[in-house]
């Protein structure tokens, strides 16, 4: 059992010290960054309270919480309590289902309508684990306004508990069929989170960023382009776990704004394909390259494997090499190879297709290069 401290029993304490000494001992037992806060009705230590905060990705049913809970339990973190005004919402495994994941909610509405303080007062969390803003991004709300809502919520968390520890996610990717612009909006918003966290974090109440975006695929890790399936739940829980256990162990999950990428700070990138224009015998393709790491990318290479026998015939925004089997290798141009964390660039091409080809598609993969030391 980890991360909590148990006070002596009442009878033992009364035998050992006089009344004034007992009061002093109780006051001292409240110290430490995650020590339970005593009330008039509660003079014993309690489990560390963790609030999962967000929208349907967190709460409807938000089965990553079940995966995370059971992993924590199985690795010895048993004196914890997931808290929230909502309870179990499904999932096929036993777990502490309390949460604050309200389906359909926008973080800007929660801030504007002052909804969080009552939820905090009812649950008294020590740690908040927040994946919030997907509905705002979908609604095309400006990143500045979403981040202002984040700041308002952090103020309210600290009013509830000046020692609040806060983990904030870079949102998982989103690619719903009804919102073609959403994928890029998530990238643009995520790019702003590390700087916001660095400016908001304090020694007493740290804000750390947990990268839920990198390595998460809307094709394989969601069932609708937005909400995680079982694979996605596993990935989300795996990203929260080290950051959360660092707090439970009395440490920190990394510097404020560190997205927590795997790979020891090495740059990484992702690539996504779309076909904005199609005609008989060919189409125009576009590939977006995104720096998915916390390190600058000094250059990138993308492989493009077009489906149905298509061949790239023209390219702009990069340098093209084509193999005999039609696989295309594209390296950056001189002007678009350097990408800051979260930043994106695009290159385009023309592809020729056989008459029998179906809807344009291509498999794309990206590798990144670090700056020379």
TrEMBL record:
Domain CBM2, first and last residues per copy: 262-372
Region (Disordered): 247-272
Pfam families, per database record: CBM_2, Lipase_GDSL_2
One GO MF term attached to the UniProt entry: phosphatidylcholine lysophospholipase activity
Domain of life from the UniProt record: Bacteria
Keywords: Carbohydrate metabolism, Glycosidase, Hydrolase, Polysaccharide degradation, Signal
Gene Ontology biological-process entries: polysaccharide catabolic process
Protein name: Cellulose-binding protein
């Amino acid at each position: 059992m980890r991360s909590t401290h148990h006070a002596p029993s009442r009878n033992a304490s009364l035998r050992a010290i006089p009344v004034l000494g007992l009061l002093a001992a109780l006051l001292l037992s409240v110290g430490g960054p995650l020590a339970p806060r005593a009330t008039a009705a509660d003079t014993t230590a309690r489990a560390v309270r963790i609030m999962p905060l967000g929208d349907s990705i967190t709460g409807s049913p938000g089965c990553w919480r079940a995966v995370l809970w059971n992993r924590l339990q199985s690795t010895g973190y048993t004196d914890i309590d997931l808290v929230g005004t909502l309870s179990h919402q499904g999932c096929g495994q036993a777990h502490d289902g309390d949460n604050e994941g309200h389906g359909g909610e926008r973080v800007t509405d929660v801030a504007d309508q002052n909804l969080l303080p009552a939820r905090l007062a009812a649950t008294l969390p020590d740690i908040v684990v927040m994946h919030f803003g997907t509905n705002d991004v979908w609604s095309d709300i400006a990143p500045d306004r979403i981040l202002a809502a984040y700041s308002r919520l952090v103020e309210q968390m600290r009013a509830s508990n000046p020692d609040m520890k806060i983990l904030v996610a870079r949102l998982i990717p989103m690619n719903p069929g009804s919102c073609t612009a959403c994928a890029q909006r998530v990238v643009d918003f995520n790019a702003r989170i590390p700087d916001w966290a660095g400016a908001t974090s304090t020694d007493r109440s740290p804000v750390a960023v947990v990268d839920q975006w990198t390595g998460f695929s809307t094709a394989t890790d969601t069932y609708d382009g937005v909400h995680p399936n079982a694979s996605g739940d596993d990935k989300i829980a795996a990203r929260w776990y080290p950051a959360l256990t660092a707090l439970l162990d009395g440490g920190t999950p990394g510097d404020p704004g560190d997205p927590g990428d795997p790979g020891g700070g090495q740059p990484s990138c992702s690539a996504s394909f779309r076909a904005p224009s199609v005609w008989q015998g060919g189409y125009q393709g576009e590939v977006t390259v995104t720096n998915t790491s916390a390190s600058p990318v000094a250059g990138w290479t993308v492989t493009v494997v077009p489906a149905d026998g298509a061949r790239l015939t023209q390219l702009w925004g990069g340098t093209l090499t084509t193999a005999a089997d039609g696989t295309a290798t594209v390296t950056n141009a001189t002007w678009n190879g350097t990408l800051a964390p979260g930043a994106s660039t695009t290159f385009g091409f023309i592809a020729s297709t056989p008459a029998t080809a179906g809807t344009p598609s291509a498999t794309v993969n990206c590798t990144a290069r670090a700056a020379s030391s």
